[in-house]
Amino acid sequence: LQMLEQQVVGGEQAQxxxxxxxxxxxxxxxxxxxxxxxxxxxxxxxxxSERALLNVYDSIQEELRAKSKMLEKLxxxxxxxxxxxxxxxxxxxxxxxxIRRQERDLxxxxxxxxxxxxxxxxxxxxxxxxxxxxxxxxxxxxxxxKIPEPVIQKTQLP
Length: 158
Known about the structure:
By secondary structure, the chain is mainly alpha-helical. The chain has helices spanning 2-9, 17-45, 48-51, 60-117, 129-135, and strands at 137-139, 144-146.
């Protein structure tokens, strides 16, 4: 009676070991698939930075490869940022040195004008530098200043 009961309760294939293993594999696959679906749902609800942390991997090697690739991308981005910062720093130093040089050249020109102005005749229109600056016009086409011609005004007494 007990033998019949064991056969009937488990079905005809109750003692079949292959069938039991097949059932265990299917159950294991279903559990893994359920975990993957739960992870995918969580991933859909979280932002992209947290998605990388919820990936489901088949093996540790696959997880290691994925994280190594992520690390390489991060290191490449950091290297790129450092290169750009260095390049911008060099350009900034170059611009500052250009500005300093131009300021020195401007000071030299101003000092020369101050020295030479006293040597210009009083009856010449170049004796008044402010008047020359007001009358000068920038020409966009040629990219230079149009300065009035020097004129000597002779005054005649009656």
